[in-house]
Design brief:
By secondary structure, this protein is α/β, with parallel strands linked by helices. The chain has helices at 9-23, 46-50, 67-77, 98-115, 135-145, 185-193, 204-218, 220-227, 236-246, 258-270, 282-285, and strands at residues 28-34, 55-60, 82-86, 123-129, 149-151, 162-165, 169-172, 176-177. It folds into 2 domains: 11-172, P-loop containing nucleotide triphosphate hydrolases (Rossmann fold); 203-284, Conserved Hypothetical Protein Ylqf, Chain: A, domain 2 (Orthogonal Bundle). Strands 1, 2, 3, 4, 5, 6, 7 and 8 form an 8-stranded mixed beta sheet that branches. The longest helix is centred in the middle third of the chain and has 18 residues, at 98-115. The chain binds guanosine-5'-diphosphate. The site of guanosine-5'-diphosphate (GDP) has 16 residues, from helix 5.
């Protein structure tokens, strides 16, 4: 697991500058978000930073999200010059749609070049996103199949290399990294719930209370089924207690061992024992 990045104003300014520098070389921006929290896993200044470059949004980790919600998010994000795809970078699902989507985004420009008798070069793409959304996993996947590194191009600093992805794409081998919007407490809780921020930076039990509160309202049946509960108590702490008791997370005197119960619930969530869960929905925005 990579070291958690500490974002201070100076680091944010530097990250923004670095991304802007990379964008100069790029035709299409591939923005990665976590399909479970597509808004909370975006950088708050992304539109301003990317400007009017053609953009492909990848809703990643669909294996862990609620499929119905992911489909709604896909529609939500699509618009003129903007496309969205559902992907699982770990298994590779959906990645074969990336090149055709980039081609579609560049179609008008390429048609114009062709009309002038110019053969368009490969489309240059940058992968962009906040930490832990799957940027390295995606780059490794795309690179493995197409290992040819094309080397330096004019205007590129020595360190940056291009990875050839099929005949159509040249991918910058280092992603653009931006910061999330964590000054909002709910955003922070969603980031922690999905593992985008290490739990150790958070109060472990608080994150689990957040998860239970959300699931109690949105996915009560999943809780009932997993923890063999007949009813879901209104009070979230009572629910926490009930799960702890059912699962034998007890310390002396019959008291609940909250650390143990929290760990168990988080493990169930991460290993999909509670099913695919989205912590943000389009309905909440509208
Ligand atoms: P980066 O910080 O954006 O480069 O993120 P990483 O590529 O390091 O991925 C962060 C974590 O998410 C790693 O543990 C990956 O294995 C995991 N991951 C990436 N893509 C997927 C996916 O589609 N599904 C699941 N379940 N995990 C993923």
């Amino acid at each position: 697991m990579s070291k958690p990045i500490q974002w201070y104003p100076g680091h944010m300014a530097k990250a923004k500058r670095e991304v802007r520098e990379k964008l100069k070389l790029i035709d299409v921006v591939i923005e990665l978000v976590d399909a479970r929290i597509p808004l909370s896993s975006r950088n708050p200044m992304i539109d301003e930073i990317v400007g009017d470059k053609p953009r492909l949004l990848l809703l990643n980790k669909i294996d862990m999200a609620d499929q119905t919600e992911t489909k709604r998010w896909k529609k939500f994000f699509e618009g003129p010059g903007k496309m969205a795809l559902e992907v699982d970078c770990q298994s590779g699902q959906g990645l074969n749609k990336i090149a055709p989507a980039c081609r579609e985004l560049m179609k008008e420009k390429h048609d114009k070049l062709k009309a002038k008798g110019v053969n368009p070069r490969a489309i240059r793409v940058l992968i962009l996103g906040i930490p832990n959304v799957g940027k390295s996993t995606l780059i490794n996947r795309l690179a493995k199949k197409n290992i040819a590194v094309t080397g330096d191009k004019p205007g590129v600093t020595k360190k940056q290399q291009w990875i050839k992805v099929g005949d159509e794409l040249d991918l910058l081998d280092t992603p653009g990294i931006l910061w999330p919007k964590f000054e909002d407490q709910d955003v922070g809780s969603r980031l922690a719930a999905t593992g985008a921020i290490k739990e150790t930076l958070f109060d472990f039990q608080e994150v689990v209370v957040f998860i239970l509160k959300y699931m109690k309202d949105r996915y009560p049946e999943r809780l009932k089924e997993r923890y063999k509960l007949e009813e879901i108590p209104d009070d979230v702490i009572e629910l926490f207690d009930e799960i702890g008791r059912k699962r034998g997370c007890l310390v002396g005197g019959g008291y609940i061992d909250y650390d143990k119960a929290a760990e168990l619930i988080l493990r169930d969530l991460r290993s999909l024992k509670l099913g695919g869960i989205s912590f943000e929905t389009v309905q909440d925005v509208n």
